[in-house]
Amino acid sequence: MTEPTNITLAVTGASGSIYAAEILRAVAADPRVTKINFVASDSALRVFAEELHLSGRNDLAEKLLGAPSPKLQQHAETDIAANIASGSYPTDAMIILPCSMGTLASIANGLAQNLIHRAADVCLKENRPLILCIRETPFNRIHIRNMQLASDAGATIFPAIPTLYNHPQSTQEMARNFVNRVLAHIGLPQPNAYQWQPD
């Protein structure tokens, strides 16, 4: 797999803002990544405010990083004319973390109602990696059917389930290990990532 250098990162309104913050920090710090297109839904903004005490859309990514990043471009979810809405724009991979069931449903059924849905649809039609880090429990039959539809269309269903075998000492460490696994899946293994050694 070729190392992705142009990443689309979307955040939707499911619980798990800490995952979004950790993956944004990881790709911003990764020298292999040269461009990050970042989109947060309106519902995600509310979750950020509740879970991380960050409010407002303006400079949200910079607030999460703690400083501006020259490789970062933030888009409004209503901006359907953004670069990532076109198949001619060379995105290497898209990650939605966390991915709400509403977002999953829209992607699975081809309802490009906002920029996140449209960018995901572009990844599917162009055969580019699309990682849906879904966050819900328990799943009802509609959720499961939508996961099947999205998977059949080419998406990877990557539930936001933390690992325990690495003995995490904090929620941040737990989130970071999950993010490391997501990034390794798209060809960006992270330095110092925990790897299971059964022996």
From TrEMBL:
GO MF, any single term: flavin prenyltransferase activity
Name the residues that bind FMN. 13-15, 41, 100-103, 135
SUPFAM superfamilies in the record: Homo-oligomeric flavin-containing Cys decarboxylases, HFCD (SSF52507)
Which keywords does UniProt give here? Flavoprotein, FMN, Prenyltransferase, Transferase
The residues listed in the UniProt record as binding dimethylallyl phosphate, with positions renumbered to this chain, are: 165, 181
Give its E.C. classification number. Answer: 2.5.1.129
Known Pfam families for this protein?
Flavoprotein
Please give the InterPro entries that the UniProt record associates with this protein. Answer: Flavin_trans-like, Flavoprotein, UbiX-like
Extent of the signal sequence: none
Chain's role: Flavin prenyltransferase that catalyzes the synthesis of the prenylated FMN cofactor (prenyl-FMN) for 4-hydroxy-3-polyprenylbenzoic acid decarboxylase UbiD. The prenyltransferase is metal-independent and links a dimethylallyl moiety from dimethylallyl monophosphate (DMAP) to the flavin N5 and C6 atoms of FMN.
Record's protein name = Flavin prenyltransferase UbiX
Q: Which organism is it from?
A: Tunturiibacter psychrotolerans
Q: Which gene encodes it?
A: ubiX
